[in-house]
Structure formats: C-alpha cells, structure tokens
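B., you asked whether I could sanity-check this one before it goes into the benchmark set. Here's the sequence:
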Amino acid sequence: MDLFEERAENAALRYAPLAERMRPQSLAEVLGQEHLTGAGGLISSALETDHIFPMIMWGPPGCGKTTLASIIASETQCNFVKISAVLAGVKDVRAVIDEAKKELSRKRRRTVLFVDEIHRFNKAQQDAFLHHVESGLITLLGATTENPSFEVIPALLSRVRVVTLKAHTTETITEALRRALVDPKRGLGRLEVGVEEEALSHLVRMADGDVRMALNTLELLVDQKRLADGKGTIVSLADAERILEKKAVLYDKGGEEHFNLISAFHKSLRGSDPDGALYWMVRMLRAGEDPYYIARRMAAVATEDVGMADPAALSVALHAMEAYKFLGAAEGERALAQAAIYLATAPKSNSVYTALAAVSQEVDRGGFLPVPKHIRNAPTQLMADEGYKKGYKYAHDYPGGFTPQQYLPDEIAHKSWYAPTDRGYESVVGPRLAGWRKQKNSK
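And here's what the prediction gave me:
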C-alpha cells in the first residue's frame, strides 16, 4: 500500500458510520454467535483449515452476517468477490464466473463469492451460478434476513448449508456500545463524551437486537451532545429521550417491574379484559421483553385459565408463537395481539389446572398403586395365565363407543378429580361425562 492509498483508507475510515468503523476485524472481536465462531464452531473450524464451505447465513438485521463474510475474506487464501443482490444481475454473476475460471487456471485459487441479500435474486439469477457452485468453481456465501426455504430455489438450497445467526442480546449490544465509547481510533474515545447507564440501556432497548442500529444511534447521540456542550460532557437519559424523540419505558427484566407487568398481563387475560391485556403486552414489548416469553405466558394461560372451556386456545397461543418466528417483529406482534384478544375473550375454566393439581396430590399421598390386571396388555402366554387383560372390554365394540369399566386402582376406584364447568366447550363435555359416570356408578 502506498502513501496515497493509506491516506484514502484513513479518510474512508474517518467518514464511515460508527457501525462500519467498529466492525470486528477477526473472530476474536465478534460478539455473540459463539455457536459458529467459538472453539469447534462451523466458521472458526472452516477458517482454521482454510476450507470454506458453501453457506447461506440467515439471521435478523444487524446480527453480523456481513461482518462474518468480511472476516472470511480477510482470513482465507481464496479469491474473495462481493456483490449485492440488490444491484447485481445475471451479467454480473457471469462476470464473476469468468473471473473465477481465470483465478483457478492462473493462480490455482478458488473463488469465494459473497452475495448480500441473496433472497433478492430471482430464479434466473440463482440458476446462473447453480452449476458452478455444484462443480466447486465458486464457493457461495449468501446473507439473508428471509427464510431461505422460501426465498432460495431448492436446487441451490440443497448444495449449500444454511447457517443460522441469532439476534444480538442485550449483553452483546451493550458490550459493543462500551467498546465504541472507549476506542480512540475506530470509535468515539477521542471525543471524551460519557453516556449514563440509563441512557445506554435506552439505546439497547431501541435497537431491538440490531447492533448496527445501536452503534449508529449512539454516534448520532454523542455528536449532538458534543456539538451542544463540547468535550467532557455526559449524555443522560433525558438527553437520549430528547434527541432521539423516544421516551424510555420503566422496565427491568430481572426486577420487580418485570413481574408486575407480566402479572398485570396474565390477570387481564384471566379477567377477560382484552384492552388491559393488549396494553400490558405492548408495554412489555416496547420495553424490550422477549416476545417468546410473552407467547409462553399465553400458552400457560390457555391451559390454566381457559382450559377445556375452549381447547383451541392452546393452539392459538402456539400458532402465535410460530407466526412471530415466521413473520418477524413488526408483523409478528399482530399475531401475539390476536392471540391475546382470543384468550381474553374465550370462556374460562381452571378445571384442567385443578384436576392436575388434585391428581398430583393423590399420587404423592397414595404412592404408585398397581395397574388393574384387566387393563394390562398380555404379550406373553405367562401374562395371560396370570390374568392380564382378562375381562377387558374394548370400548368400540359397544354402542356409542362406551361401556362402564374400571380404569383406576381398586384403592381409589371411587374417586374423580376432573369437574367441568358449564362454560364454553365444557358445557358439552360436562353432560357427556356425567352420563358416563352415571352408567359406571350404577353398574
């Protein structure tokens, strides 16, 4: 590198956004993604052996896909080419293929092609390098925020490995911001501006797992504060709220407020108040609560407070969780809202919850009573001779698919624990079960 190239590189670094300047230069600097970059991880192992395999990196925005591609580029001995699916077409892909052939014949070097936002390539564009990926001429690295199962053609998908990256956690984003604040060369250390913990936490919550957004927002905040007050100033929570025009929400995932809000949410669902349920749910989401935690709480409500009054409630809660995973935050929140409204307006019954608790107490108190012989299987003649399965009545052989029969041990044969209410689906289950029990008791 000559003097002019060095000056140009330094100028580019100076004017690049903070997120670009702080981009990790090696695997050791990467935060999160330990399942890929840690000891024995797929990417760390590939770099150690200089054996890069075709892969598509799938993960949410700002999780480090481009960063990992850049590190692979700097640490591999291969010819590395980067294109964006937003700007490139079939012509560009063919040019890369021609270059790869020359590299292989002249320098005996393989070509690694990084395609950013690969989900934006149409079928024809993906077909253009399909054969060359299969032959090994090109080692494809793709990056996408969309599910590859829907955005990448099956023929190409079968020739690559999908590597899933996780959204950054609160801890990893906080660490990235701290690094940027003290780094004097690539970060903001030379500006001598501090940031209060509350303001830093506010930035982390706003980032929603996107470390790039967090870093660039931090730079904006620090620049605005420094222009107003000069060096040595401290950015407060009030400064962050004023400059970023977004008020922080009082919340502590590990403290009392966390339990207060989830309690309010649960009780609103149980109390059949959809407005209250939505309010507390949005409060938690805006404060940075894990959406899957909220979905899990709704699944618990479906079994504890709705139960057999509406057996479909559990499916609704679980489908909301899957929909959030499939759609992402913006649209996925609507699925959570729909589930919350469904649960709040569903008929309520805690009969499943109380029946399970009562049976658990019975087992703890009475121990493990033997299974009655007539409902045991008899796979051997010895078991049959001992009376296993003797006298068993196959329910489907009787009218209505029911016949009175004892299924509990003799010691507790007279007991029953499940008591359906007259609400929702249990208004159907209750009379049906009462009729069966009447036949059984009159036997």
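One thing to flag: Residues 241 and 282 are 19 Å apart (CA to CA). Otherwise nothing jumped out at me.
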